[in-house]
Amino acid sequence: MTLLAINWGNTGMQALQFILSFSILVTLHELGHFLTARWFKCRVEKFYLFFNPWFSLWKKKIGETEYGFGWVPFGGYVKISGMIDESMDKEQLKLPPQPYEFRSKPAWQRLIIMLAGIVVNLILGFLIYAMMLWHWGEEYIPTNKMTYGIATDSLSQSIGLKSGDKILTADGQYIDKFDKIRMSVLLNSTKNLTVDRNGEKVNIAIPDDFSSNLIHFKDLGYIGLRVPFTSIDSLQSDTSAAAKAGLKENDKVLAVNGKPIIFFDEFRDEIVKNKKKTVDLTILRGADTLPAKVLVPETGIIGIANNIDEHFLDSAFEVKKIDYTFLTAVPAGFRKSYETLESYWLQLKLIFSGKVNPNESLGSVFSIGKMFDPKWDWQGFWGLTAFFSLVLALMNLLPIPGLDGGHALFTLVEMISGRKPSDKFMEYAQMVGMVLLLGLMAYALGLDIFRMFK
After folding, report:
1. Could you say which of 67, 215, 241, 281 has the lowest number of CB atoms within 10 Å?
2. Domain named PDZ: which ranges (predicted)?
3. pTM score
């Protein structure tokens, strides 16, 4: 990919959503530390959204605290007097402890201050999910109501699945939500699928290395809902292979190289088979049947989307709709939060177990930003914000020096042993943690840049 190939309009919209989402998360996370620090009468010297090396975009001192905006939009911080943090303020630590300093407070108060940001992120993720369910409800197509079965690709076909299969059970259990099946296979927790193939039950064993292959190829859509190819909804761009061949919105593809096309996955497979070749399409435009020649690029993507709208889904499938009252949305939001945390924890276990190459799953702010929809979608925005809030809580809980979990671990050791680590030890631990975290961030950024130009 080159810089000229990037759709800067879409990238800008994704960047805007990313900055807004993480501004909300970071501000509330740091507010948790701020409020508990003030509750225990600690002096808070600074409260910043974004980092401000050398200068600030805006700052104002109110009381004892300087509030401000930095110019590096990757986080934020509160600076609590007498606390060894990323500011590495050694001069303050050379002076005798003051009653208003963090280091002068009892261990249980310091533990609460350190865990407050994590607690806020957990509560925020839960509240967003609950409010989303209350406002939008929930819609999905039950696994046993997938009229045309599943759509597969080469990876899912390699373990014996076929397009049109209807999934009956996963490890002997029926699962109503299809996405749960897809995720459990990805996380290597489902070992066997039973499918209905033309009226016959077929067992599909999931190999141990299947999840690592999915992550290696970033193939999160290895099985999906099989849908008819109704018509072209939109063209990716005016320079796409489809646009160059003269295809238009609302055209219906009838055949590829003379092979009749009914389902969109059939069309996709035929196109992928003919990378760097010219294919003959038969299309229906209004009442006219027309030929078209398309040169398929090396990516195997000619740049068209299938026209599947809500009306079609409702008519072709039995869509399950759940409306929640405020009271029922609360436990549903809690349930969804728990499932999200469980899923992400399983992903971390896959990485630490060595079954997945960290280089293939690690990403920086660029990877995170690309998860947002190029078109502004409030439901998608809040869903990702809730997800990232829970992930931020889980990651901060890891017992790594420099993270809240590292500070909390040292405080717990102090409470159990009765011995407080020296300021010098905490200073070195913070330094090691910061080097590790900054190194990891730089490495992830390098990986994203490499992928961008690969």
Report:
1. 67
2. 221-287
3. 0.81
Contact predicate 33/46, CB 8 Å: no
Q: Give the domain CATH number at 171.
A: 2.30.42
Residue 111 · residue 64 · CB < 8 Å? no
Are 165 and 257 in a shared domain? no
Among 256, 276, 299, where does a domain finish?
A: 299
Residues 128 and 20 both lie in one domain: yes
* Chain Cα centroid distance, residue 181: 18
Q: Is the pLDDT of residue 308 over 90?
A: no
Do residue 8 and residue 116 come from a single domain?
A: yes
Only one residue has tokens 């208003």, namely 100
Least confident of 55-59, 229-233, 320-324, 330-334: 229-233
Residue 1 has pLDDT above 50, yes or no: no
Domain count, the chain: 3
Buried b (16+ CB within 10 A) or exposed e, 28-51: ebbbbbbebbbebebbbbbbbbbe
142: helix, coil or strand? strand
Task: Give yes or no: residues 216 and 245 share one domain.
Answer: no
Pairing of strands 304-306, 288-295: unpaired
Q: pLDDT tens, 255-265?
A: 999 999 999 99
**Angle subtended at Cα 140 by Cα 161 and Cα 128, rounded to the nearest 5 degrees:** 120
Among the listed residues 439, 389, 373, 407, the one whose alpha carbon sits nearest the alpha carbon of residue 121: 389
Same domain, 124 and 168: no
Q: What is the mean pLDDT of residues 87-116?
A: 83
Verify that 220 and 237 share a domain, yes or no. Answer: no
Measured CA to CA in angstroms, residue 415 lies from 10, 278, 400, 410 at distances of 51, 71, 18, 9
Q: Tell me: the pLDDT tens digits for 127-181?
A: 999 999 999 999 888 999 998 999 998 889 999 999 999 999 999 999 999 888 8
Last residue of a domain, one of 186, 205, 225: 225
Q: Tell me, yes or no, whether 377 lies in a domain.
A: no
State phi, psi for 226 to the nearest 5 degrees: -85, 125
Which positions ≥6 away from 26 have C-beta within 8 Å? Answer: 49, 75, 76
